[in-house]
Automatic annotation (TrEMBL):
Name of the gene: Dcdc2b
Cited SUPFAM superfamilies: Doublecortin (DC)
Annotated InterPro entries: Doublecortin_dom, Doublecortin_dom_sf
Protein keywords: Repeat
GO aspect biological process, one term: intracellular signal transduction
Record-annotated Doublecortin domain positions: 13-95, 126-208
Protein name (record): DCD2B protein
Short name of any one Pfam family annotated for the protein: DCX
TM helices/strands, residue ranges: none
Annotated Gene Ontology cellular component terms: microtubule; microtubule organizing center
């Protein structure tokens, strides 16, 4: 066969994918091989499995500006992207929330070192993850805690009300995943997950299991010092 009859496949690309709206997800390396994935949809199906997404991934966005990626050829080797379903892109500082497993100790896997990794790890130790009561479609949102400023409980509830945007109205209480109510800021544990609740009763649902990737490493990385 003549050389003009040969078609070289595009080289494989390595990308890192984050979960839309999840500030605790450390990112997953995914190989973009166009010999394996004939369509962009096939690649999105692979991303769904790779990041253990609770719902099928149907869109990819750039992490800083939320620009939508339309096809395989638009993906750039060594870059990061945010995976989403049909929901809108949720603007977070994904790149600054890299964990040690991604940003420091796994360079041998050719994972790209995240910009501001040390800053992200320091900030992570002063945040909570908060679910919305009864909502199994929205991932947890981050709630920063300040070590230098005394925590005012009313101010915290007001911040939760603004961030959670519950359909039932204002956030009146914060509960642990087992349903017990938190009565003061001194009871909060950095890195733990909580549920924002309005006037209604706490709804005991598998928030962690359905809304946070099931890979145990994803969850435990949040607790690494």
């Amino acid at each position: 066969m003549g050389s003009r009859g040969l078609t070289l496949a595009p080289p494989a690309k390595n990308v890192v994918v984050y979960c839309n709206g999840d500030p605790f997800f450390p990112g997953r390396k995914v190989v973009v091989n166009q010999r394996r994935f004939l369509t962009f949809e096939a690649f999105l199906n692979e991303v769904t499995k790779s990041i253990c997404a609770p719902l099928a991934v149907r869109n990819l966005y750039t992490p800083r500006h939320g620009h939508r990626v339309a096809e395989l050829g638009d993906l750039q080797d060594g870059c990061q992207y945010v995976a989403a379903g049909f929901e809108k892109f949720k603007r977070l500082d994904y790149l600054s929330h890299g964990r040690k497993e991604l940003c420091g100790t796994r360079n041998s896997d050719d994972l790209q070192v995240c910009p501001g990794a040390e800053q992200g790890q320091a900030g992570a130790q002063n945040e909570l993850g908060v679910f919305r009561n009864g909502d199994l479609l929205s991932p947890p949102f981050p709630l920063p805690l300040s070590k230098s400023t005394p925590l005012q409980w009313d101010a915290l509830l007001a911040t939760l009300t603004e961030k959670a945007n519950l359909r039932t109205g204002a956030v009146n209480k914060l509960c642990r995943l087992d349903g017990t109510q938190v009565s003061g800021g001194e009871e909060l544990v950095s890195g733990d997950y909580y549920v924002a609740v309005g006037n209604e009763e706490y709804k005991k649902l598998p928030y962690l299991e359905l809304l946070v990737p099931q890979d145990s490493a994803c969850r435990m990385l949040w607790y690494v010092d």
